[in-house]
Amino acid sequence: MTNILTTKNLNIHYGPKHAVHDVNLNIKDGKITAIIGPSGCGKSTILRCFNRMNDFITGIKISGEVVFNERNIYHPSTDPSRIRKSVGMVFQRPNPFPKSIYNNIVWGPKINNLDLDFEELVETSLKKAALWDEVKDRLNDSALALSGGQQQRLCIARAIAMSPKVILMDEPCSALDPKATIKIEDLMGELRESYTIVIVTHNMQQAARVSDETAFFYEGELIEFGNTPDMFTNPTKKQTEDYITGRFG
Amino acid sequence: MNSIQENLMDSKRSIEDGRVSFRLFFNKLLERSINFYLLACVSVTVLVSSTVIFILGKDCFEFFSQISFFDFLFGTKWEPLIEPRNFGVLPLITGTFLVVFGSILIALPIGLFVAVFLSEFSSKRFRSFIKPILEILAGIPTVVYGLFALTFITPKLKLIFPEIEVFNALSAAIVVGVMILPMITSLCDDAFKALPNSLKQGAYALGGRPHEVVIGIIIPAASQRIGAAIILAISRAVGETMAVTLAAGANPNFTLNPLKSVQTMTSYIVQVSMGDIPAHGVEYLTCFAVAGLLFLITWLMNMIGAYFIFAKGKN
Amino acid sequence: MGRKIKSVIFYFLCLVSTILCLFLLGILIYHLFIQGKDYFTWDFLNNFPSRFASKAGVKPGIYGTFYMMALTAIIAVPLGISTAIYMEEYGPKNKWMNLIQINISNLAGMPSIIYGLLGLAVFVRFFGLERSILSGSLTLSLLILPVIIIASQGAIKSVPQSIRDAGYALGARKFHVVFTQVLPAAIPGIMTGVILSLSRAIGEAAPLIVVGAVGYISYLPHTIMDGFTVLPIQIYNWASRPQEEFQGLASAAILVLLIGLFSLNFVAVYIRERFQRYKDND
Questions:
Q1: DSSP letters of B28-40?
Q2: B127, B200, B206: which to substitute to probe chain A, counting the most A Cβ within 10 Å?
Q3: Which of B108, B109, C185, C193 is close enough to C159 for a disulfide, judged by CB 3.0 to 4.6 Å?
Q4: Given CB atoms, is B209 within the 8 Å cutoff of chain C?
Q5: Rounded average pLDDT over C229-252
Q6: Which CATH architecture has domain A31-41+82-244?
């Protein structure tokens, strides 16, 4: 089992605040890895390192390495936009472009000059995101006319259209109702076959349902990492056990 | 409690009630007066608009009872103050158009680029340095720009276009462009800031580079407010007076050649006011006819611009 | 790669545009300074305008501008702030108020010269105030009124609702809450708006020309019914003469004007900072 994404001694500072301490994390290829922990423990910050979206935060200092495909993506010679072609992201609140459903999906491939049959690409992506049946007759309608759950699936389709190796998901269901959440969790199970998924979630039950491996963070430190069923039934660290049983967080 | 004590308590209570009700009355009166005073202040604004419309309307009516509407709107010679008199307003319209169009041509791209730079490429510190500079540029009085056009810009233009006249529309357009540039930049900057951050992040997360994100996602998403910015800038340019008068002169040339002297609607009104106009007669009325046209144009643009800003976009 | 190059060109365009603005401001100030510095003498500040460039001065312009500003401020500021208070605190939220709001925005965008014609017809002719400082101030007041209103509205709107709630919860009446809580909290923003509008009014020439400020005046105004001139009009008169000395005089007068504007804005920023700190300590 190969590690597709690895962090080596990752440290993140926001100005004077040392937010993330010495994280060494291995994300396995083809698996769903969940990152859990209480609010403010740095989950989203770490996730955003994987596609260098942290670059947009002023005053942030990142040291250590993040290795993808055997290259350190934080090496000065690396072009961030190239990384993002292979490491896609789905955000907490659905953020489709104010364009048609069709144009939402083809925008990424178009600017990256992917030479593809766009009609086919749209259909495939929407099918993989379990949205095709609901929108196939209205691809030219505005994406903003869709419901929250549909918009989020559209964002997933949009990310898939880039054929990434890894899909990062930052609490993708926290803005959705339970029914929409279930749909997305089922979808993740199907996506596992083609993509590596890293999901940040504050919902432990979701992590237990959906993921193969789980990483538990507390105050910027990786406390425990392992096989999900084992972590949840037999955590080795007391902090993990306290969090999972709801004693704090 | 016996009846005397009861009576005492009752009278005490009614005095207190009296006091309370007096205070209540006084407070209510105060509230009413304040309300009335404030409303009176508000009505001043309504009064101003109505008066403007009334005056312009009345004098335009009088004007058009003497001069034919058709001659005014479509005539190509504007010589209302000397014999033989001609009242075709087209030269003033083309003059205004030359200056305004030229100024937008200059101010829009540069203004947009600066707004993009402020929101995409600059650090907070640089932003707080540039913004005041733009505010200063916006705050410089128009006569200053007029003199600048006359004594700096036109001589420099003469090196490129030797046949340019001392007063010319190009100089005016450049300088009006500089005047409306801060307005365009700040309105576009507001438009960008009003967009949710997640929109931009989503575009970058798909591997977009700044120019693709800005041109493909941000500007289309903000297009409504950018449109409003353009229209409001045009309205401002149309109303510009002193800089244009100094730079472009007072020659109502019916031309589209920016190297020649032209007269805008606003300059004409100033020109007439500088002389001694008798309070009646057709010369005095030309002032108001032109002003009426000016008012109509700017009013229309302001309404369209406001609509663009406040209307719910077809999102 | 084409994409990377386009990205660089784009950045370059944005950078150059921004630098162009800085450059423009620099050139403007430099050019004015060079042209006007020789004429910027004490006599210049103390003389009246004259056909002879060497004897000409801006004294009436300085006085006129100053009186004009003071009177305009006295008229327009209370009126504007009161209107804003009504629009934000007292007025009902119905379609009539919407219309009034739209009207105010339109007035803010109306060309200044139309205000001049308004002043001419109403103050000079109808009210018979003739070509006086009073007519000029009234006209300018109407000109800057919409801007003051809109700026004050913005400042009042940004006072958090929690302050009002706290006031009412303590049993205060509406005018207490508005005038002793909301208004003081909104003062920094209002001040900024007021100073900005006065700055604009100082630079106006067109409406005053229409109302009848004169170019050549040989006395200082003593009462508000006297004739007057202002700096921008003196600048304009000199600028429109072809002789080089008059261009120089115009530049010098502009320097005086800019110094005045700069001081005004400096005062504004100072007041705003001071009040801001006061509010933070509360």
A1: HHHHHHHHHHHHH
A2: B206
A3: C185
A4: yes
A5: 87
A6: 3-Layer(aba) Sandwich (3.40)
CA B63 to chain centre: 27
User: Chain B closest CA to C281's CA: distance in Å?
Assistant: 25
B42 and B135 inside one domain: no
pLDDT reported for residue C276: 61
- Determine the Cα–Cα distance for residues C23 and B224; give it in Å rounded to an integer: 31
Considering only alpha carbons, which residue of chain A is nearest residue B219? A98
Query: Is the confidence at residue B285, as pLDDT, over 90?
Result: no
User: Which pLDDT does position C42 carry in this prediction?
Assistant: 79
- The pLDDT tens digits for C114-161 are 999 999 999 988 888 878 889 999 999 999 999 999 999 998 998 888
Same domain, B10 and B87: no
Contact C175, B31 (CB under 8 A): yes
How far apart are alpha carbons B173 and C189 in whole angstroms?
34
pTM: 0.84
Q: What confidence tier does C1 reach under pLDDT thresholds 50, 70, 90?
A: low
| Top-confidence residue, A246 or C143 | C143
| Distance in Å, alpha carbon of A85 to nearest chain C alpha carbon | 14
Clarify whether residues B156 and B271 are in a common domain.
Answer: yes
Over the stretch A5-34, which tens digit does the pLDDT of each residue have? 999 999 999 888 999 999 999 999 999 999
**Domain of residue B175, residue span:** 78-310
What does the pLDDT look like over C251-266, one tens digit per residue? 999 999 999 998 888 8
Tell which residue, C124, C111, C110, C118, has the closest CA to residue C212.
C124
Chains that touch B (3 or more CB pairs under 8 A): A, C
Which DSSP state fits B87? E
- Residue A77, chain C, CB below 8 Å: the answer is no
Q: Residues B218, B88: one domain?
A: yes
- Which residues 6+ apart lie within 8 Å of C143 measured at CB? C112, C115, C201, C204, C207
- Tokens found for residue C169: 């919860």
C254: nearest CB among B136, B144, B302: B144
Average pLDDT over every residue of C80-108: 92
Q: CB of A81 within 8 Å of any CB in chain B?
A: yes
Mind telling me how many Å the CA of A154 is from chain C's nearest CA?
26
Residue B118's pLDDT is 92
Among A51, A58, A144, select the one facing B205 at the smallest CB separation: A51
Chain C: residue nearest B292 by CA? C114
pLDDT over 90 (residue C267): no
pLDDT of residue C278: 41
C178 CA to centre of own chain: 27
pLDDT bin (cut points 50, 70, 90) of residue A101 is very high
* Per-residue CA distances from A35 to A95, A178, B55 (Å): 22, 20, 72
- How distant is the Cα of A25 from the closest Cα of chain B, in angstroms? 22
Query: What integer pLDDT is reported at residue B277 of this predicted model?
Result: 66
Check which CATH number belongs to the domain holding B242 and give it. Answer: 1.10.3720.10
Q: Is the pLDDT of residue B312 over 70?
A: no
HEC profile for chain A? CCEEEEEEEEEEEECCEEEEEEECCEEECCCEEEEECCCCCCHHHHHHHCCCHHHHCCCEEEEEEEEECCEECCCCCCCHHHHHHHEEEECCCCCCCCCEHHHHHHHHHHHCCCCCCHHHHHHHHHHHCCCHHHHCCCCCCEHHHCCHHHHHHHHHHHHHCCCCCEEEEECCCCCCCHHHHHHHHHHHHHHCCCCEEEEECCCHHHHHHHCCEEEEEECCEEEEEEEHHHHHHCCCCHHHHHHHCCCCC
**Does residue B68 belong to the interface with chain C, where contact is any CB pair within 8 Å?**
no
Nearest CA in chain B to C125: B279
pLDDT at position C12 is 93
> Domain containing C49: what range?
40-281
